[in-house]
């Protein structure tokens, strides 16, 4: 059969999807954003890994594919046209296979269970291209179960126990079915990055991860008859946390609890330490947009009942304070430039004052958070301004260095702070390493999910 388009010269006009679905998954099909926003592409290639060509058309509102033409070519490139619309050419040539005047084009690979290469990863399902910002937005339109098979090996190691993998599969499926954060802005259900959950197609799937998806097919988490927010994180460090204390919203099934399981399995980098000089901390906070001067103190100002951090207070050289609560209490430390972050909400800070009373001035009722810029009066009446923090006080018992401070608060270290903690993640919902530990001890995936999510049902 001659390769090429069935009707090469036809220019097709059709109505693109005019309204997005009200639910995240329609007709058991998920739309996954692969390239969008600032990552749109000037052109997008496809190559059949296991297939025999492509059909061109569009997706109905119910995500049924409507075919308008086809080609036997197995390597094709989609490009936005300067006059509007999208054209398809044979990759590496200017030979046009298909054109549409519309700003959206759907491409469906042909063959039995076809798999397609896109940007170094292999995907099942079809693709939808939309002209956006001078480039092409790329969306994978894929069966729900195939989507979960593409998430699972990237969110949990494929050699973990089957019951842990099954718990993760239920969480991933529930997330996709409930999540609608990108629908209004971009017209797809979920993205493919950690902003949603990692999805890179079928490349890393194993027989175990596929089995976990197949043995939980269609199952999701429910609370009071409604889909639940199936949040998960790597490890909780000893206790999960109430969603209200992390994100400010009370969710009845996202309740924190002591976790006795994590300590019974091996977790890489479970304990961690990160240091910040005062200059580094000042730079991080100011570059994050916080209104604070030169930071001279930082301490945990409140813990939750479960021992996780609820708030951190930062103090500048003028005594101004910045208090960050919940997940912001760890994210305030995050810097890609410095390559530093506080991985979880289960930590302590040393080097700060701890939030006590500070330096006593004239009387115990008056305090300063720092001596920098304060003044002293000598016995002869001379007034001298203090600079820095290296000072001493003279009493009847002799001279004492003030680096420890005279009040219960004392002074902060001149070098900065050290943050020490355990765990990795936001501490809400299922601990993935906790799930691993539970599975190693013989618990099934229902036990795991019912432990980490209070009052939920799996169905």
Keyword list:
459 residues, alpha+beta, 7-stranded mixed sheet, disordered N terminus
Annotation field: number of helices = 9
Report mean pLDDT, rounded to a whole number.
87
In the sheet with the most strands, the strands line up as 1-8-7-6-3-10-11
Taking pLDDT < 50 over at least 5 consecutive residues as the criterion, the unreliable ranges are 1-23, 363-367, 403-409
Share of helical residues: 10-25%
**Beta-sheet strand percentage?**
25-35%
Structural class determined from secondary elements: alpha+beta
- Gyration radius, in Å: 29 Å
Biggest β-sheet: count, sense, barrel?
7 strands, mixed
Judging from the principal axes of the Cα atoms, what is the shape?
Answer: globular
Number-wise, the strands total 31
> End-to-end distance, in Å?
48 Å
Annotate the secondary structure layout.
Blueprint: E1 11-12, E2 29-35, E3 44-50, E4 54-59, E5 65-71, E6 75-80, E7 86-90, E8 96-100, E9 104-109, E10 115-118, E11 121-123, E12 126-132, E13 135-143, H1 144-155, H2 162-178, H3 183-186, E14 190-191, H4 207-215, E15 221-223, E16 226-227, E17 232-233, H5 243-247, E18 271-276, H6 278-287, E19 295-303, E20 309-316, E21 321-325, H7 328-331, E22 347-350, E23 359-361, E24 363-368, E25 375-377, E26 383-385, E27 392-395, E28 398-401, E29 417-422, E30 430-431, H8 432-440, H9 445-452, E31 457-458
Parallel strand pairs: 1-8, 2-14, 17-30
Antiparallel strand pairs: 2-13, 3-6, 3-10, 4-5, 4-9, 6-7, 7-8, 9-12, 10-11, 12-13, 15-16, 15-31, 18-29, 19-20, 20-21, 22-29, 23-24, 25-26, 27-28
Helix pairs in contact: 1-2, 1-4, 2-4, 2-8, 2-9, 8-9
């Amino acid at each position: 059969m001659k390769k090429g388009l069935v009707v090469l010269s036809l220019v097709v006009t059709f109505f693109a999807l005019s309204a997005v679905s009200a639910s995240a998954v329609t007709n058991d099909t998920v739309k996954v954003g692969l390239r969008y926003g600032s990552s749109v592409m000037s052109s997008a290639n496809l190559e059949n890994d296991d297939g025999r060509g492509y059909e061109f058309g569009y997706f109905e509102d119910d995500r049924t594919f409507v075919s308008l033409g086809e080609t036997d070519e197995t390597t094709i490139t989609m490009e936005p046209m300067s006059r509007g619309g999208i054209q398809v050419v044979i990759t590496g040539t200017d030979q046009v296979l298909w054109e549409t005047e519309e700003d959206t084009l759907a491409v469906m690979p042909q063959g039995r269970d076809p798999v397609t290469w896109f940007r170094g990863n292999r995907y099942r399902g079809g693709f939808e291209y939309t002209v956006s910002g001078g480039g092409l937005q790329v969306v994978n339109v894929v069966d729900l179960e195939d989507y979960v098979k593409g998430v699972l090996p990237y969110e949990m190691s494929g050699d973990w126990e089957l019951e842990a993998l099954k718990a993760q599969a239920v969480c991933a499926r529930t997330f996709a079915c409930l999540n609608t954060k990108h629908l209004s802005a971009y017209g797809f259900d979920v993205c493919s990055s950690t902003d949603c959950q990692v999805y890179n197609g079928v490349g890393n799937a194993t027989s175990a991860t596929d089995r976990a998806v197949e043995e939980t097919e269609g199952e999701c988490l429910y609370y009071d008859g409604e889909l639940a927010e199936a949040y998960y994180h790597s490890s909780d460090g000893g206790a999960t946390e109430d969603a209200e204390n992390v994100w400010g919203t009370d969710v009845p099934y996202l309740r924190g609890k002591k976790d006795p399981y994590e300590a019974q399995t091996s977790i890489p980098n479970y304990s961690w330490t990160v240091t910040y000089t005062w200059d580094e901390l000042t730079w991080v906070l100011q570059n994050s947009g916080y209104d604070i001067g030169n930071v001279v103190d930082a301490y945990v100002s409140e813990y939750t009942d479960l021992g996780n951090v609820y708030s951190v207070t930062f103090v500048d050289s003028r005594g101004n304070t910045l208090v960050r609560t919940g997940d912001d209490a760890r994210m305030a430390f995050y810097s890609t430039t410095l390559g530093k972050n506080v991985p979880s909400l289960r930590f302590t800070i040393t080097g700060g004052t701890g939030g006590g009373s500070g330096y006593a001035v004239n009387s115990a009722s008056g305090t300063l958070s720092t001596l920098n810029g304060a003044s002293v009066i000598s016995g002869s009446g001379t007034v001298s301004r203090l600079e820095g923090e290296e000072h001493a006080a003279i009493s009847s018992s002799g001279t004492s260095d003030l680096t420890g401070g005279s009040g219960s608060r004392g002074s902060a270290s001149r070098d900065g702070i050290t943050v020490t903690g355990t765990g990795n993640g936001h501490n809400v919902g299922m601990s993935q390493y906790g799930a691993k530990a539970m599975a190693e001890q013989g618990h099934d995936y229902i036990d795991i999910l019912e432990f980490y999510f209070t009052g939920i049902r799996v169905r």
